[in-house]
Amino acid sequence: MGVKARVLIRPKEGILDPQGKAVERALPALGFEDVSHVRVGRMVELEAGDPDEIPALCEKLLANPLVEDFEIEHLDGDG
Amino acid sequence: MMFGVIQFPGSCDERDALAACERVGDARLLWHANRDLAGVDVVVVPGGFSYGDYLRAGAIARFSPVLEAVREFAAEGGPVLGICNGFQVLCEAGLLPGALLGNEQIRFVCRQVEIVVENDRSAFTAGLEAGQRLSIPVKHGEGRFFAPDDELDRIEANGQVAFRYAPGQNPNGSARDIAGVCNEAGNVLALMPHPEHAVDPLTGSTDGLRLFESAARALA
Predict the structure, then answer these.
(1) Which domains does chain B carry?
(2) Model pTM?
(3) Residues B182, B92: Cα–Cα separation, whole Å
(4) Interface size between A and B, measured as CB pairs under 8 A
(5) I need a surface site. Which of A37, B29, B128, B176 has the fewest CB within 10 A?
């Protein structure tokens, strides 16, 4: 039983995010007029036997550090 | 003269690439799980959706056994051509600079474009002239070439821009209209447009054949 973690991956600041833009443009049609700065990323949940390895596996595989930032949340208990 | 075309699970253009190579030399497929390049003279990393493009296009393929062999082959100066998904794989593998992001307009694009030869020094462009225009189709959803500005300046200064979309024809929002790049040594080159789909008059253009002919001549 490893340590549960959640990795949030998002496009780096300043990089055009067409998915986010599309979502943002769709919202007013549904009556949500005041929403901005929508960014669409990915979320990965995992269990790691050695949690110290998580940053390295994020850098090497889960995110492309050239274009994406990632954030690791450690989940307590059953998460 | 033997071309080797890599076949990943999810590749879909390896047969066209094979057929294009066979117009100028011999060619064989190289299965992704084999570390062995079987002594080929040129490696082609074809288009498609390697490993389903899971996570990010090219992200998983770069860890495949065959890519280890390609990495060694490239380090020794062996010519490597990446096409579309092959471009994404080579960027993910760190063999080429930059990254390919989702098209600016979100839509998948599938159309004929004109590209301009920028660098005629690589094996794949030696038979072309800088400034020459080629008509070649693109078909991709994630072809927006991106690198930070300082990296773009470095790529340009090193002459690593191999092809640019002709003015007004950038189909995906690529930085500085870049359609293809090469490594510093010039032996690894990749582009988003599909030269292997432009080798027969039946499909409208034979301009893509020039890249394969060029490699065959450079190595003859």
Answers:
(1) 2-219 (3.40.50.880)
(2) 0.94
(3) 14
(4) 32
(5) A37
Give me Rg for the CA atoms of chain A: 16
Whose tokens are 């995906």? That residue is B172
B217: CB partners within 8 A, 6+ apart: B126, B127
Of the candidates B197, A60, B61, B9, the one whose C-alpha atom is nearest the C-alpha of residue B211 is B197
Over residues B108-126, the mean pLDDT reads 95
Residues in chain A: 79
Nearest to A64 among B63, B99, B103 (CB): B99
Q: Residue A79 falls within a domain, yes or no?
A: no
Model confidence at A79, pLDDT cuts 50, 70, 90, reads: very low
Distances (CA, A) of B28 to A27, B15, B34, B128: 51, 10, 13, 25
Please indicate if any CB of chain A lies within 8 Å of the CB of B146.
yes
Q: Please determine, for residue A40, whether its predicted confidence score (pLDDT) is greater than 80.
A: yes
Task: With CA atoms as reference, report the closest residue to B179 among B128, B127, B134, B121.
Answer: B134
Interface test with B, best of A66, A68, A69 (most B CBs within 10 A): A66
Return the CATH number at A58. 3.30.1280.10
Percent of chain A with pLDDT over 70: 96
Mean pLDDT of chain A: 93
pLDDT at A77: 61
> For residues B151 and B97, is the Cβ–Cβ distance under 8 A?
yes
* Structural domain count of chain A: 1
Question: Tokens standing for A35?
Answer: 């929403």
Q: In which domain, by residue range, is A51 found?
A: 3-74
**Beta-sheet strands, E only, within B22-62:** 26-31, 42-45
Q: How far is CA B60 from the centre of its chain?
A: 18
